[in-house]
Amino acid sequence: MTLKAYFKRLLFPIYLFPIKLLIYSTYYFLKFLIKLLFALVGLIIDCIIFPFKSLKNFLKSLVYLIVAIYLFFSLLVIGDYVKRQYGSFNKIFCGYGINDKLKKSVVRIVGENMEGSGFFISENQVLTNFHVIADEPSPKIIFPDGKFITPSRIIGDADADLALLFVDDKYPDLVYPLPERLGFTDNEPLLSAGYALGTDIKGNATILKGNYIDYRTSKHYSVGYIQTNISLVAGMSGGPLVDQCGSLVGVNTMGLAGLSLFIGAQDVSTLIPNFTDQKVAKIEVDPSSSPEEAVRAFYTYLKARRMKDGFDLLSKKYLEKTNFEEWTARFTNILDVGIYKSERYEKTRDTAFVKFSTKNWVDGEIEIHYYEGTWKTVKEGGVYKMLQSKIKEVFEPGWDWFYE
């Protein structure tokens, strides 16, 4: 039968064409399956018979069998490696550049007595642990390039150990969005980033790799905890925990000798609407009450980088020899100010004796300087203002200097 005649017979009469197409398709498909089955049976029989035809065939078959077994177990090993190294096959090619982004995005959070890490969850919001900023009204956010800023507002939840720091500028390239839900495979690889040992060590954020172990919850806690075998150390609190693809999954919280817990990132978005500043430390000063309180207020404003408020505490006489630009330029690298003492000097009415320290951020490291001396004040507009200082630096003070 010619091809033309075949198609004519298939197409006409036209109303039978769908039925013919279905029957012919089924026929040829079944015919193919039957031939394939016979071919496979024949191949199996040939494989069984082949080794026994001769010694040479037997040796060849033995080699083929060894190679097949080797390849089979190699595939098992490769599959196990992929699971341990990437978590799943779909995450093999998504991890490029993860370490670089973490090093460029994770920030330091530094106060007078505490240090930790943090990261942006939106263009102008930095997330960290509450214990990192506890008792600190004006922590500093230090970027990987050395620039530092003071948050304009802080809210948090002390019980959940989470705090949110608001900044004035926007940093869209540094954001790690909060996930809506989490899902892990057994032993899935995870990466934690933070500044190990804080400012005691100069350099980029430390990135530690480990594996997911379990997800822990309790009726006594408002958040769930991701357990890993990563060893968190001091300074890494508040940093991000990400998966192999760089997606945020948790917040560094606590660690002990190879076992660490991370707040699950999906809980953060549900808690943030209830964050408040109720337990956040506040700046409370009253420069109108006394010279010593005015001096305390002056250094507190420097600590908080509230430069305009500090400048406004300079007396008219003092302002004759400076202006706002010149005065603020003296304190560009001051990260923090610790005030140990501010009290009335001897029997004076207008002078305060003060002891304080400064943390200066110099070339990626902190330099601490200690000072003591007196500030003479003058009352202007109902507020004691800075008139004249006699401040000297104290080098390597003994322990008694802080308490006497």
Task: Identify the notable features of this structure and list them briefly.
alpha+beta, 404 residues, seven-stranded antiparallel beta sheet, Thrombin, subunit H, 3 domains
User: Number of helical segments?
Assistant: 10
- Taken from the alpha-carbon principal axes, the silhouette is elongated
CATH T-level topology of the largest domain = Thrombin, subunit H
Mean pLDDT: 89
Quote the beta fraction: 25-35%
* Top CATH class of the largest domain: Mainly Beta
C-alpha-based Rg, rounded: 35 Å
Whole-Å distance between the termini?
116 Å
- What is the name of the CATH architecture of the largest domain? Beta Barrel
Largest sheet: 7 strands, antiparallel
**Helix coverage percent:** 25-40%
Q: Poorly predicted ranges (pLDDT <50, ≥5 residues)?
A: none
Number of domains: 3
Q: Element order, helices and strands? A: HHHHEEEHEEEEEEEEEEHHHHHEEEE
What does this structure look like?
With 404 residues, the protein is an alpha+beta fold. The protein folds into three domains: 84 residues, no CATH class; 177 residues, Thrombin, subunit H; 112 residues, Nuclear Transport Factor 2, Chain: A. Helices cover 30% and strands 30% of the residues. The strands form three sheets. Strands 5-4-1-2-3-7-6 form a seven-stranded antiparallel beta sheet. A six-stranded antiparallel beta barrel has the order 8-9-10-13-12-11. The radius of gyration is 35 Å and the shape is elongated. The model has no long low-confidence stretch (mean pLDDT 89).
